[in-house]
Amino acid sequence: MYYYKESIETVLSSLNTSTEGISTEEAKKRQEEQGFNEISRKERQSTFSMFIDTFKDPMVIVLLIVAIVQIVLGEAVESLIIFAVLIINSILSVVQTKKAEDSLESLRQMATPTSTVIRNGRPQNVEARELIKGDIVLLEAGDNIPADGRLIEAESLQVVEGALTGESVASDKFVDKLEEDAPLADRSNMTYSGTLVTYGRGKIVVTAIGEETEMGKVAQLIQSAEAKQTPLQRKLEDFSKKLGIGILILSILIFAIQAVRIFLGDSQEYTVPLVNAFMFAVAVAVAAIPEALQSIVTIVLSVGTNKMAKQHAIIRQLPAVETLGSTSVICTDKTGTLTQNKMTVVDAFIPNGESNLFSGDKQTWSESERLLMQIAVLANDSNIDEKGESSGDPTEVALIAYSNKQDAPYEEIRKKYPRLLELPFDSSRKRMSTVHEINGEKRLLTKGGPDIIFNLCSRIKMNGEIVELTEERLERLKAQNEEFSDQAFRVLAFAYKPIEKDTVEVEDESDLIFVGLLAMIDPPREEVYHAVQDAEHAGIKTVMITGDHKTTARAIGRDLNIFKEGDLAYTGQELDALSDEELMNNLEKISVYARVTPENKIRIVDAWQKKNQVTAMTGDGVNDAPALKQADIGIAMGSGTDVAKDASAMILTDDNFVSIVHAVAVGRTVYSNIKKAIAYLFSGNLGAVIAILVALLLNWVNPFTALQLLFINLANDSLPAIALGLEPREPNVMNESPRDPDESIFSGKTLSTVIFRGSLIGLAVIISQFIGLQYSAEISVAMAFTTLILSRTLQVFPARSTTQTSFEAGFFTNKFILMAFIACLGLYGITLLPVVRGVFSIPDTFGLMHWTIATGLALSTTVLMELKKKVFPAK
Fold this sequence. Notes:
Blueprint: H1 8-14, H2 24-34, H3 47-53, H4 58-72, H5 76-98, H6 103-108, E1 114-119, E2 122-127, E3 136-140, E4 148-160, H7 162-165, E5 171-172, E6 190-191, E7 196-208, H8 214-224, H9 231-264, H10 271-288, H11 293-309, E8 313-315, H12 320-325, E9 329-332, E10 344-349, H13 367-378, E11 383-384, E12 390-391, H14 394-405, H15 410-416, E13 421-426, E14 431-438, E15 441-448, H16 450-456, E16 457-462, E17 465-468, H17 471-486, E18 490-498, E19 512-521, H18 526-537, E20 541-545, H19 550-559, E21 568-571, H20 572-576, H21 580-586, E22 590-594, H22 598-610, E23 615-619, H23 625-630, E24 633-637, H24 642-646, E25 650-652, H25 657-697, H26 706-716, H27 718-724, H28 750-773, H29 777-794, H30 806-809, H31 815-831, H32 834-837, H33 848-871
Parallel strand pairs: 9-20, 9-23, 16-19, 20-22, 21-22, 23-24, 24-25
Antiparallel strand pairs: 1-2, 1-3, 3-7, 4-5, 4-6, 4-7, 8-25, 10-19, 11-12, 13-14, 14-15, 15-18, 16-17, 18-19
Helix pairs in contact: 3-5, 4-5, 4-9, 5-26, 9-10, 10-25, 10-26, 11-25, 18-25, 25-27, 25-28, 27-31, 28-29, 28-33, 29-31, 29-33
């Protein structure tokens, strides 16, 4: 039943209750049937289960198999290193996951502890969780509404429903039924769980509790909304599966080839050769798997979060850094994000035909200007303290702020003309009046909605004279009001009349003299204009989704160049009327959505995702939480609700759209740096695999031990890879289109770069081993190891850019590269120490001549990598 479309009598009858409420016995009976007024908890995954899940990655499984086999073969050191790395990665993953979703818990905590209800014909306090449908609940200013309900009494009742509608302005509430369908924000005879009474009092009959409430529906949407993997997560997961399977197949094939050679040979002893063959295959697996990749990606993302924090963006989920870099659509709220969330007077009108109102010194103001400002300040209950903090209705605050701005301090005006009598604002009258003595004359000053004030006026002040408000003059006033409204301004009208009574009544608000209009708007943030333009240059479409009225939203959108010629604007109801096919056909033209519901927001985000667009969604209210979770990256406002923050991946501490665009630039840089790190790691690993395979084909000794490869992958390569993640922003990073979310991590020049660099490193190692074999098998292994570790370390310099050489990029623009290089040389030096040499299979006969040859070969790979950029520049 649509309760807002039914009369009070019909609603009470359908709920089998009355204005006297229900009995305690009936309440207990209904509670057994309906359950408690609370949101159920979603069972969460245990920490141990999360930990176990981290070991399901194919590359992890391969390493586990390798470690177990090495334990069986007595290679304890290598296996312990592998286990240590895997456990550290798992702990990091679990810690991140445990920080994430707490949305439902926040929703549960929003419930009011107690409520005043009528039971057994008398008011009594009960726990909010014990409310049932049919209860009569009393509401007063300051109350958090505990359940959804249909109003049966309302006295000047105002409710802030921003938690559900996204708008901070209080809604006026009435008891009259509505004749037509209305979105939630326009259901003036309904109240909703989790909203706040700010003025007046009322009485509701409870129509929904628990998960049946609008707040409960939001909770269910949060549960059903999918938490999206980032593009990089998807690609790394897919690549891990393929790499893991490929490595297993390659290792098995290598072992099989070695085994066949053994059995076809002359030797009668198979055990030792087979063990060596197996260790050869294990070395290939260890060489190919970038053991530290996940940790390095996590560290680089963490560095990105620190950079974003300086841009007022707090990252709650590390992968969100990378997602921002691929964002192609930003669905943003209007109020506070694009706008200042501060009503401001932007225009004024008095029927004198004058322009440039309130210009110059206040002493030169016309009588009408002075009177207009007096009414705006005096028929007003708001205040601004010495610290600039305001209190009162935002619209009234805008009026006194405007007076201050015009060098007419509102406090001086109030002090000069103290309030004698008043008729407070009433939502049914939509106006307020106060009485003051001005220039020796007692006057009734009235402020209210234009249509209301027009109907109360019979005269008009023009050019210093009071004349009759003729039909022609009234049409002129209405036309001006319409002109303001078309610009999405909120308009107030001001009037007065002399009064001699010592009391004032509503009936006195008649036969007024019209003075003028003031137009207000929540203006866009100045910096947002450029941010929207920057987003467009970066190939990112900005879509405004707001709970405000369509006219206002469209006007703001047009002003910010979000809404352009040929674009469409839809309300939530109009969106509901569209089929999925119609929405998909029009989606790219719709740049403004107004009066939307939580379901609308999820549908919009989902539609963009179905078009394979990486979608960011901003929000601050409970109503935004499901869409924040559904989006590829949810962005909550720092001033928003805990529910919105818990459902998001990122929080803006300054609630500013500009910070999103800045964060996108950081995200793109982070992704670029991650690709540099990946290219660096896989180039080195490919070089090692090539050297091993050639040694296999030529029946040479295995050029590396498993421990040597683990040392290079985990200790030596990690520091340069992390340093690459700290590379500064590339030029023109925000002048490129967002990358395709289906793009491979080896797309563009990455794969060819890996193959080229890996081949150079592999060739250098092969030559080095060949030279070493002229001395001994042990020397060949030591030379191959030295060439590999130095080649991979030196590779960090050409890895900084695919277009610039190290000299062009500047050696000191990233000091971490130099620090990592020096640290890696130090780590390699440790392996040459007499007490450590044996562990790394470096014989005492390995001397300066061998080291010089290996170093020269390593340096040659770096020179060739840099030369390629000049001979075959990247396009």
